[in-house]
Amino acid sequence: MAPLNARPATTIAWFHCFAGIAGDMALASLVDAGADIAEIRLLLDRLSLPGWELDIERTLRGGVMCARALVRHGGDPADRTYEHIASLITAAALPPRVTDRALAVFRRLAEVEATLHGLPVNRVHFHEVGGHDAIIDVVGTVAALEVLGVDEVAASSIATGTGTVRAAHGLLPNPSPAAVRLLQDVPTYGRATTVELTTPTGAALLAALSTSFGPMPAMVVISSGFGAGAGEIDELPNCTQVVIGQRYERADIGPGQPAVLLETNLDDVTGEQLGQAVSSALEAGAFDAWVSPVTMKKGRPGHVLQVLADQAHVGALRDIIHTSTGTFGVRAIPVERWPDARTFDEVTIEGKVVRMKVGHGRAKPEFDDIVAIATASGLPVHEVASLAEEAWRQAQRGAATERGVEENR
Q1: Domain coordinates of the chain in residue numbers?
Q2: pLDDT value at 252 more than 60
Q3: Is the pLDDT of residue 6 over 60?
Q4: What are phi and psi of 57, to 5 degrees?
Q5: pLDDT tens digit string along 74-106?
Q6: Residues with Cβ < 8 Å from 93, sequence gap 6 or more?
């Protein structure tokens, strides 16, 4: 059930590219998430592109059940110009949003190829991405988005491989030059695998269609699916995940303050080290820092150290986390926060000043001040805290009385 203070906005497809993305993986993930393959085929049949078949099979990737898209064809020259493909799509009388999205993907591919080869866009010849399978993958993906009623596309940061890959032009670096150009201004990261995790077609789909990149957007999840890549990878499941959901906009909360949540999993540090890491992070300017117990792989007990910070402090805090814990890695998640306005006041207890943090009609005493008074007086810490809070309330009542007297004069 939707929250009472929320209103429905758009249907969104968020692609989780932890193992990269390719055209067939995007299409298959959407089918796995519920896009009717029969409806997709009907839309694809409108293309003047004879001699192809699109099948979906079920397969496992790293223990995850996925759909895999298989395009079969015969005698495909796999060498079409951008203008040829654009006219093929335009003439197909597809739904307007399918046409616009498909043209946007191939236009982005053509612009990159033109830059790489020093050619005008209208003279670009597609090789791998000009074949039946690439056209079916791209148009099939945007057709699947339409079948699911997707209004917006978003994606996580995108994983890429390393080493080299073989293409029509011979051996190329992995990720390919085209993929790198397409991923300009898109958050990416590399994995230590020679598999081509992200292909130019997959990169073009997200570069042309995604309106945002990052963690899964706030939404009510409707469905999800996995699209399999070709073959297994030892390091991780070779698949792309998609999550379909209804985005909800909070009616009563505007944009928050941007922040970054730094995290690391730890299973070989002492409690003293964890405490020192939290203290060091706070001293270095973190908004907050805390530790949560977790169960890690192979059943090992561990902890997650989390540090909430302003972007300006991320570099220094990351170094502090490395130094204080010895961790092998730190991850960062962009977040928003809505800190309440607060002021500071003081009261006197046992002849000593206690600093008070004030907000929303309540005041909280500074713990270090409370401990110092409790130690000196022999009173319990909670009793000193209660005395400080009551002293602040009495001061507020006195101030209110004085204001009333002044107003009545």
Answers
A1: 6-250, 257-337, 343-408
A2: no
A3: no
A4: -120, 160
A5: 655 556 788 888 999 999 999 999 999 999 999
A6: 46
Question: How high is the pLDDT of residue 127?
Answer: 52
Give the sign of the dihedral formed by CA 302, CA 308, CA 313, CA 314. positive
Which amino acid does the sequence have at 64? Answer: V
What are the structure tokens assigned to 229, written together? 């890549």
Spatial distance between the Cα atoms of 308 and 282, rounded to a whole number of angstroms: 9
Token pair 């130019």 is at which residue?
200
Q: What is the band of 145 on the pLDDT scale with cuts at 50, 70, 90?
A: very high
Is the entire prediction scored with pTM above 0.85?
no
Instruction: Supply the pLDDT for residue 245.
Output: 94
Assigned CATH class of 257-337:
alpha beta
Q: What number does CATH give the domain 343-408?
A: 3.10.20
Confidence of residue 343 (pLDDT cuts 50, 70, 90): confident
